[in-house]
């Protein structure tokens, strides 16, 4: 387990860890009973979004602004590369994981499709190129023809319509759904504690631990596949336990957004978040087809590639600068004495006492996080919208299986067709949304926060339309049209993240983004089994019922969109047009 280096927190005493109440967003003032020692300049930076070029900044705040400006390019560049590699880890592994799990389930349901060597199957046809898998055909008693491919570790892939039957696909959807749920439960347990830990010890160490847990999780799943004759397939669900170390992808993404929020002014975050999402989508366009193409050679090639990319991610995290200390705050002499004394005592404590102290601080932080939600209605409202948005977006995880089931496509072809969605999302984020943003700001006179709110509202409507078209698509052409409409709403999550970061104090962004991750994980906990079960029901009933998961996602998007349309910005965040135009 990678070590988490403790950093000097003398310049960043997070109120969430100190146990002081969180000021409300509307008042921007501390609670009368427990005042928070924050300089007026720092309060302005936190409440209204800092400005690195503001000549009225105090010397300490000016130094912090200069540090942010210095670290900003490096944090952005490393984040872009990390997101790219992270999607390679995930994207290239999806087609082979689905194909291997499908064949293992199909072997259990239809053992007659997989004759053992002693049962007189036809001889193996030697491939022309040694690196190609062994391929041979088996003629079934009923006259059907299918293809069997054998690979290292006893993995056998078969192309047969029987493997697309509801019994096989329903069980596959259930396994994938519960896999997501177990990972979500892990996130629910550790997301907020790791967020608190990042505010005290630093972001980079938490990120490294998260990435190590992700790589270990994938490696365990691949071992289950390799020894599939010995280890039952359901054991792969236990791979989620490895993500207890670092919190998995939820904590990792939360830390990326937190480090970006640490060094980027609030008015510039939406643009950077769009770039992050664009890189994510661009890497998806590459990863999916690569995984599908390599699957035609061997499922182990994309799986090993994903592990290699995961190791590179951990190396790349070392290039991050630590950003937890960049917020300028004025501390009293009493606070300095307390921190010095705490530091001396921490070194003198035993390991057991240090762990007990950490759990105590985590408990205090969790209570403070709850108070933060209760006393900040704007944040609570947006978290509701984010929860239902994540619930609806989970249906994207079913797109690959949905396409192979409904239209009879291979995993490789479905991976290629799904680039329509990724390409459309990339075009939306790089062309459509910047153009609309320019029009809203330059022509309509909106400020950046109000603009993000309106774009999030309309993006939700586009999500609803796209989901309904996909649900009703009776052929691949309509399916592609639905994917294009769905892609037009792809900026909604980034805009909601930007909005919620804009209405809180800067020194709370760590716990805020962890809470966002917490709500996302909470949503996926229920979305995985629910949408997987809806796909299973749809496949069993056939006809229009096959689109049931996307009808459900349209309902979830509707709830999220209604919440965003009802939401009103705090009074001090309304721009020239803003909510007056509502």
From TrEMBL:
<feature type="transmembrane region" description="Helical">
    <location>
        <begin position="300"/>
        <end position="321"/>
    </location>
</feature>
<keyword id="KW-0812">Transmembrane</keyword>
<dbReference type="InterPro" id="IPR020846">
    <property type="entry name" value="MFS_dom"/>
</dbReference>
<feature type="domain" description="Major facilitator superfamily (MFS) profile">
    <location>
        <begin position="75"/>
        <end position="572"/>
    </location>
</feature>
<dbReference type="GO" id="GO:0022857">
    <property type="term" value="F:transmembrane transporter activity"/>
</dbReference>
<feature type="region of interest" description="Disordered">
    <location>
        <begin position="1"/>
        <end position="57"/>
    </location>
</feature>
<keyword id="KW-0472">Membrane</keyword>
<dbReference type="InterPro" id="IPR011701">
    <property type="entry name" value="MFS"/>
</dbReference>
<feature type="compositionally biased region" description="Basic and acidic residues">
    <location>
        <begin position="1"/>
        <end position="11"/>
    </location>
</feature>
<feature type="transmembrane region" description="Helical">
    <location>
        <begin position="178"/>
        <end position="197"/>
    </location>
</feature>
<protein>
    <submittedName>
        <fullName>Major facilitator superfamily domain-containing protein</fullName>
    </submittedName>
</protein>
<feature type="transmembrane region" description="Helical">
    <location>
        <begin position="544"/>
        <end position="567"/>
    </location>
</feature>
<dbReference type="InterPro" id="IPR036259">
    <property type="entry name" value="MFS_trans_sf"/>
</dbReference>
<feature type="transmembrane region" description="Helical">
    <location>
        <begin position="233"/>
        <end position="260"/>
    </location>
</feature>
<keyword id="KW-1133">Transmembrane helix</keyword>
<dbReference type="GO" id="GO:0016020">
    <property type="term" value="C:membrane"/>
</dbReference>
<feature type="transmembrane region" description="Helical">
    <location>
        <begin position="75"/>
        <end position="94"/>
    </location>
</feature>
<dbReference type="Pfam" id="PF07690">
    <property type="entry name" value="MFS_1"/>
</dbReference>
<feature type="transmembrane region" description="Helical">
    <location>
        <begin position="461"/>
        <end position="488"/>
    </location>
</feature>
<feature type="compositionally biased region" description="Polar residues">
    <location>
        <begin position="34"/>
        <end position="44"/>
    </location>
</feature>
<feature type="transmembrane region" description="Helical">
    <location>
        <begin position="423"/>
        <end position="441"/>
    </location>
</feature>
<feature type="compositionally biased region" description="Low complexity">
    <location>
        <begin position="20"/>
        <end position="31"/>
    </location>
</feature>
<feature type="transmembrane region" description="Helical">
    <location>
        <begin position="379"/>
        <end position="403"/>
    </location>
</feature>
<feature type="transmembrane region" description="Helical">
    <location>
        <begin position="508"/>
        <end position="532"/>
    </location>
</feature>
<feature type="transmembrane region" description="Helical">
    <location>
        <begin position="272"/>
        <end position="294"/>
    </location>
</feature>
<feature type="transmembrane region" description="Helical">
    <location>
        <begin position="206"/>
        <end position="227"/>
    </location>
</feature>
